Amino acid sequence: MGSKRRKDRARREPAFENPAAELDLKLEARDRPAAPPEGKPEGERRRRPPPPERARRSEPPPERPARPSSKGGGSGGKGGSRGVRLIYWAVVFSLWLLIAGIGAIVWVGAHLPPIQSLEVPKRPPSIEILGADGHVLATRGDMGGAAVPLRELPPYLPQAFIAIEDRRFYSHHGVDPLGIVRALAANVLRRGVSQGGSTLTQQLAKNLFLTQERTIARKVQELALALWLEHKYTKPQILELYLNRVYFGSGAYGVEAASQRYFGKSARKVTLGEAAMLAGLVKSPSRLAPTHNADGAQRRGQIVLAAMADLGVISEQAAKVALFDPPKIVRQVAEGSGNYVADWVMDVLNDLVGRVEHDIVVETTIDSSLQIVAEKALADELAQKGERYSVGQGAVVAMTPDGAVRALVGGRNYVESQFNRAVAAKRQPGSSFKPFVYLAALERGLTPNTIRDDRPIELKGWRPENYHHEYLGPVTLTRALAQSLNTVAVRLTLEVGPRTVVRTAHRLGIASKLDPNTSIALGTSEVSVLEMVGAFAPFANGGTAVTPHVVERVRSPDGKILYRSNPPDLGRVVEERHVAMMNQMMQETLISGTARGAQLPGWQAAGKTGTSQDFRDAWFIGYTLHLVTGVWLGNDDNSPTHKTTGGSLPVEIWSRVMKAAHQNVRPTTLPGAAAPSIGWPSPPAWVSSGGQAPAPTPVRDERLPPQSGIDSWLLDRLFGRR
């Protein structure tokens, strides 16, 4: 069989053109396979023997590397394969991490302003609001105080912030890795957020450019901006910006505003203990503000003192002295009703000077001492009697006869409610609106001694009644106004027409919409306290219309005048003789009428009380030649009070304010009231005594029907009967 194969092999050898000798294709003996020994398998017989040289030298064959077994036969091979795989995936992970980092940097850069145009935002303006005596009433603006240069601050003030917030401030470049690691370790040990790793530069970046949201994206932006700030500014510049921008609670931004707010002094004059307290507030300003958490602020200040001593910026002795002399928190007028004034000032400021872009000082007409008196009078009266009378709120406005507001209180407590009831609230004035009805009647030819019937009247189902449900019969207009008789006011409104009454009120200064219906006689249209006081001013000044105003001057901190008050001359709106008549009539309100408790010794005063339906509103507006003051009491939800009338609590508050305002002021008489020259007889004795009028001789008015037929004439006119 083997020979047959060899023959086949020989027959299949290729043929070449060249002779075999020339190609040297002869086989040597060593090239031919040796015949296998007898008895060997055929496969072994085909194996080639080792080369003769190797056999002659008797050298062992070279060792081949062992192949790793797929069945776990080689442990070394398996470990090497795992190492290769780990290196591979580590490289892959590093590449993805690098790509993610580059993407994050690109994202941050895309959401930041162009770095070449990125500048520190201009500090929002500070608006300081002063009383007429120069006393600070309040400060407004996003930044509560003016910027203070670092060199003007006591050295321990910035050191306190560095000690408690960023000890490595001068050694890092905006981001402190050691601080971050330390904060993370502390938070892990305490299983919560007990420390923060933000540097002062990071905090400044957040305050200048970012929101207060806590997200990873915002944190990344904060880091990028901190690095830019460190590149752009020096350490002292960064520290100065920080101290003048950081928030200290209670609306105070910057160390100057915080120092004025809490200690009543400039940041240039703070003590070591006060500096430590300020530095401690930035951790949680809303929670630690000393105005409502004095103990918490004090404890935090002690921690700052200990940190300063540990850092070596102060001695332990200095820290002990500061501990035994804690800061004293002062109460300023700005905490109370002065804020109502400030809010009103901010509302009108844009109309006076336009948009405020720089620090300004606003000088107002407010008498700071009278403001405190008005605030205290309202608060005390409500504290003592508010619960008994079911009265929760009130407002007071005091104004000179030329329109300069001297005091304005918009509520019992500004901290509890910032709604300004003196300016923004509109309520029914009740009978305090009647002077406009009587003035309209006088201007139609009636006099204070004109007689009108006080008896029931019904108009389309409406039956206006007097307060005591009693009727006095024929009375003079003077007595009808003093006693606030509703039926007489309604009859006068019908005589002159509701639209005439509305025009008269608008002419004197009421700006609110008034409904021209018969019930306007009883003050059913809503008005504000400021409007009512301004509309009574012409009675006090002789008949000239005024514009209530509070801003006297606006200037820059260096004294440049930006605005000076120049109230417009609105001219005469009431004739002198009618002013004199009204003053004589409204004096009787304080002498024998509904406001007998409002007399001012030595002064001629006049005014009118008002009580709306169901005792929801109680008013009194009274005046002298020196001051016009209005008081309103009621509830914000318009719920009824417990029979509070204008002649009760409002008169008491008015008296306290007016007595304080008229101290050391020479008494004067009201226009036309001292020596009337308008030709009417003096009121009879029974008017002043409040007695019953005798049976009068019917008074005929050439323009009106006989007195005996007044009701029929009114009904004919009302319903169109002829």
Question: What report would you give on this structure?
Answer:
The structure is a single chain. The chain is α+β, with helices and mostly antiparallel strands and 722 residues long. Among the domains are: 153-328, Orthogonal Bundle (Penicillin binding protein transpeptidase fold); 395-716, Beta-lactamase (3-Layer(aba) Sandwich). The chain is 42% helix and 9% strand. Helix 6 packs across helix 14 (294-311). It starts with a helix and ends with a helix.
Distance between the termini: 156 Å
CATH architecture annotation of one domain:
3-Layer(aba) Sandwich
Say what the CATH topology of one domain is: Beta-lactamase
CATH homologous superfamily of one domain - what is it?
A: DD-peptidase/beta-lactamase superfamily
- Low-pLDDT parts are 54-58, 69-75, 675-722
Strand content: 5-15%
What is the general shape?
elongated
Q: CATH first level of one domain: which class?
A: Alpha Beta
Query: What is the residue-mean pLDDT, rounded to a whole number?
Result: 80
Structural class: alpha+beta
Helix content: 40-55%
What's the count of strands? 12
Q: Largest sheet at a glance?
A: 5 strands, mixed
Number of helices: 26
Spatial strand arrangement across the major sheet = 2-1-3-8-9
Radius of gyration: 48 Å
